[in-house]
Amino acid sequence: MTQRSVIVVVFDRWGAGQASPLGATMLDMPFFNRLAASALTANFCLADSPDLEQIYRSYWTGRHAADPRDGGELEHWLNGVDAHSLLVTDEPLVRDHPLARHFEQKLILPPSTAQRTADEVAQTQLAKLLFAAGEAILNLDEPHVVWIHAQAMEAPWDAPLELRQSLRDEEDPEPPEWVFPPSRRIEGPK
Known about the structure:
The protein is an alpha/beta fold. Helices cover 26% and strands 12% of the residues. The protein has 6 helices and 4 strands. A 4-stranded parallel sheet has the order 1-4-2-3. Strand 2, helix 4 and strand 3 form a beta-alpha-beta unit.
């Protein structure tokens, strides 16, 4: 039986409907298309909590966020697969998560502090993170487990204005030039 490597990619606030491997046509993603063609893809992920730390507890323990029990499922799984493990992230909550300690290696990029859009796609935070992840994967022995978590749309939107313009339909308003992701907190009963 051949041992296979595992790569998990998580982009904050980036829905499956925006990814070309899952049928989106607005943005071509040839690398992800090739990766998805030989992989298992998950079109839907139901988050059991709005809290990122709790979501990762769920991901890495296999337990619902409301389940108060501690678990070592990630540690047992990583030890059981006899593979090298790597965590790649620019998200401090993932980097500092108590269960992240079970990864053999960590590649941590600082969160984006972009104040303006990038001139080229390669200068964006997401491109830098994915390039660093790709370089690290090339240097890992097989098999490996790589977990990539990018702040993506939760971080400053530093995509070049030219790219934003190319994704705009005729009837759409001009794309914004600001970089901070829109957010709105709705207050209500707790």
